[in-house]
Design a protein that fits this description.
Elements (H helix, E strand, L loop, with lengths): L12 H8 L2 H7 L3 E6 L4 E10 L2 E10 L8
Antiparallel strand pairs: 1-2, 2-3
């Protein structure tokens, strides 16, 4: 999956970078996210639940960060 977009956040770059790399902050920001747990260096296990009308599903996956250029 590839997600692309641009947003301007009225905060210092270092503060935004720290929030985007904090599993606790991200868990609270992603709808349906149940957990983001460390799974190695720059990697995480993610679980989330989604509901559309009467249909509910749970998803899990692994997220790996690459080509990091902090704080960009």
């Amino acid at each position: 999956m590839e997600l692309t977009s641009t947003r301007t956040v009225p905060a210092p770059v270092e503060t935004v970078w720290a929030a985007l790399n904090d599993p606790v902050v991200l868990t609270g920001c992603i709808a349906g996210c149940e957990a983001i747990l460390p799974d190695g260096e720059n990697a995480y296990r993610i679980s989330l639940a989604a509901r559309v009308g009467p249909v509910a599903a749970k998803f899990s996956g692994r997220l790996e960060l690459s080509d990091l250029d902090p704080p960009r």
